[in-house]
User: Which sequence fits this backbone?
């Protein structure tokens, strides 16, 4: 599962990417961090792990991770091949979700490709390239379908769908806002892997002064919020530059620095958590003397498949899952107390695992 960071040149993508991977590289020793300079493994902040590590006196703590890809070089005309455009669009097609960085900070020393700060125009410039690229894909599909649709009912149905999506995109809309309840159509659509159908988070990159009120007094940020709301996306206000500074600090220094800025949590941490849930991912937890660990699963995963994340034998020999929610455990103070109150549940193979479930699997070997 990976996220692509996109945006026009000079909006702060690399700065954001560097602070993301720096923070990740420091808090965990993942050996893949530097294989590809554009791909970073980032740890997902989760204070539950710290609390559990303390409770169990665990020797080791292992957080969940997600992958970010820095997709630089997207410019106006990319869909027509400008500036290696097609290459970058192909990179976006491979990610599961998008973080779209938008420049909301003023700085006359840093040139904007279009000469002025206008976040909404920037978003539309990028999204238009994505829309063009999607239309091109659909046009190719349409040509194929036209040849066979006369004698093939399914092809005729698909052709109708393709033409409706093209009309929707040509109307200046994103594929994500194309509505259909038809199961076949939904299946076709997911096959096309359209760029404008991917989940998006907008990261509004502001100057330090705009952090304390979360961008409320920045007109550009407000416009981004309105746009995102219309398109069912979330907005996070960050300062990539500040995050880069924060990523060089240790935990105590970081806390002090944040207090000085008048904020509770770094924008980057919020962004990483939101990215994780944008991908439809949740964590279940295991905790003991040896290790406290977050395990990543898709929302809706059942207990045996969750067990399989730890070891394939756990899935094959699955008997039961002993489950307590994080909140219940914390409220009780100890595992024994939670058991006395009947809050430790024995769940079977149809149990759908929740975020924050602390699980002990019972299995046959
Ligand atoms: P990219 O082309 O989108 O990857 O942009 P960069 O990350 O290389 O940033 C372009 C320039 O803007 C660099 O000189 C950064 O130091 C600067 N920059 C990035 N983020 C911020 C920010 O939040 N505030 C200010 N003032 N400058 C920033």
Assistant:
């Amino acid at each position: 599962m990976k996220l692509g960071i996109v945006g026009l040149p000079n909006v702060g993508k690399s700065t954001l990417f560097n602070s993301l991977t720096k923070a990740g590289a420091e808090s965990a020793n993942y050996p893949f961090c530097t294989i590809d300079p554009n791909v970073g493994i980032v740890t997902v902040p989760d204070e539950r792990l710290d609390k559990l590590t303390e409770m169990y006196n665990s020797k080791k703590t292992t957080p969940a991770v997600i992958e970010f890809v820095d997709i630089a070089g997207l410019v106006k005309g990319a869909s027509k091949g400008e500036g290696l455009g097609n290459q970058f669009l192909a990179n976006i097609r491979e990610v599961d979700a998008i973080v779209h960085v938008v420049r909301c900070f003023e700085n006359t020393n840093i040139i904007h490709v279009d000469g002025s700060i206008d976040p909404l125009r920037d978003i539309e410039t990028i999204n238009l390239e994505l829309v063009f690229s999607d239309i091109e894909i659909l046009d190719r599909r349409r040509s194929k379908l036209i040849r066979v649709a006369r004698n093939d009912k399914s092809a005729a149905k698909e052709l109708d769908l393709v033409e409706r999506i093209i009309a929707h995109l040509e109307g200046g809309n994103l594929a994500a806002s194309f509505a259909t309840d038809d199961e076949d159509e939904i299946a076709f659509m997911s096959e096309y892997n359209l760029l404008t159908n991917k989940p998006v988070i907008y990261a509004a990159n502001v100057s330090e002064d705009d952090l304390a009120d979360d961008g409320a007094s920045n007109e550009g940020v407000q416009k981004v919020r309105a746009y995102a709301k219309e398109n069912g996306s979330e907005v996070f206000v960050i300062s990539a530059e500040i995050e880069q500074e924060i990523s060089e600090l240790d935990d105590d220094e970081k806390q002090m620095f944040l207090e000085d800025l008048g904020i509770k949590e770094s924008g980057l941490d919020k962004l990483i958590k939101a990215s994780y849930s944008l991908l439809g991912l949740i964590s279940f937890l295991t905790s003991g003397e040896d290790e406290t660990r977050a395990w990543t699963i898709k929302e809706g995963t059942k207990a045996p498949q969750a067990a399989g994340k730890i070891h394939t034998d756990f899935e094959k020999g699955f008997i039961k899952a002993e489950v307590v929610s994080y909140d219940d455990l914390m409220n009780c103070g100890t595992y024994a107390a939670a058991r006395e109150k009947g809050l430790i549940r024995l769940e079977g193979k149809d149990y759908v695992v929740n975020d924050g479930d602390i699980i002990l699997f019972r299995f046959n070997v």
In short: The chain has 14 helices and twelve strands.
